[in-house]
Amino acid sequence: MSLRRAALAAILTLAMAAPAVALPDLKDWPAIATAAQGDTVRLGIAGGSAGQQRFLDWAGGELERLYDIRLEIVDFPSQRTLVEALGAEDESRIDLAALGSRAVAEARRAELLPERYAYRLPNWHFVDRAGTPSVIFAAGLPTHYSAVPWGKRSVTLFANGAATSSRPDSPAALLTYARANPGRFAFPDPATATGAAFLEEVLRSLAEDPSVLDRPIAAADAEAAAAPFFAWLDDIRPLLWQEGRSFPRSEAEARDLLARGEVDMIADFNPLAGAAGRASEKWPEGVEGFGFSNGAVTDTHFLAVAARAAAPEAALVTADFMLSPAAQIRKADPAMWGDVTILDPSRLPQQEAQDLRTLMRTGLPRMSSVSIPRPHHSWMDWLGQRVQERLAAR
């Protein structure tokens, strides 16, 4: 049994240990807001950035001012431990969790999330449902509205323009760059969300029939689809930073390598990272973002109310506030966090729409507008395990 399957089995055991708490009737939102007053919401996050913390500090102040809700941040070492906490009944219990799509899929399979509530929140009206299908899908599975979309991420390459003029637009071109510039390209550890997403993009770009990645995995499909990918990984690994013997442990570490000039190019999962890096003066002005010509793996990250939330009303109000135009504009500001909005500006009031469009226009790099979905969760599990086995064996 793989580690991920073993972890899921443990989570399922937790899920059966105690009954879920029923969510309040969302038809009476004023009553929910009233009941939330004076409550504390425990929000679980894993691996949050300094920008995310700045935003949450601001959001906590606004929640207390507007709704008399106290926001308590609970840090977890990984998304896996965060999912496990959704089923806890002890002091690790949380009300709300910041989850990636893979974690949402795992939590749904373990029945740790209430369903069919996200679209009933007042600010759901502003969500970009047509332009961002991933707001209702997580790792190839429908969310059944069991999680509230919070932001959008796309695999993006960043290069220091003062060090290189190369902008590889395909895995083959990236390999050519790495051969000419050994040790100058890095991507985060494949075990991280960013490293995994980058490799999924390479896999889809090289697969003869990428559509197989959208279906549950079959052995024959896996071997055929992944053969070009593993050949590419074997070729590029010794040309990576530190000859591929180790990887940056996080997005933040990879960004630091670029800022210090230890590498000239990195893979990231936030297209606004360049604007945020310049706003904080950590990155030089010459850093530019770009992507592969066939599109970028694009995903949504979510806020999910725990099925056993101790303060369900306050958790719902908090999640709805995070969807509000005011919160999404502050979140998208590179000087605050620099996280791509999940809202459709055409649905917003005129001034807020203009503010959001300005932030996106000035902050986002020029790259293909094609959004590539994450593969089915069975492919994600298989690829993660196979990549780790291959890296360990060489």
Automatic annotation (TrEMBL):
InterPro entries tied to this protein: SBP
Listed Gene3D superfamilies: Periplasmic binding protein-like II
Keywords in alphabetical order: Periplasm, Signal
Signal peptide (UniProt feature, chain positions): 1-22
Presence of keyword Signal: yes
SUPFAM superfamilies per UniProt: Periplasmic binding protein-like II
Protein name per Swiss-Prot or TrEMBL: ABC transporter substrate-binding protein
Organism: Aureimonas altamirensis
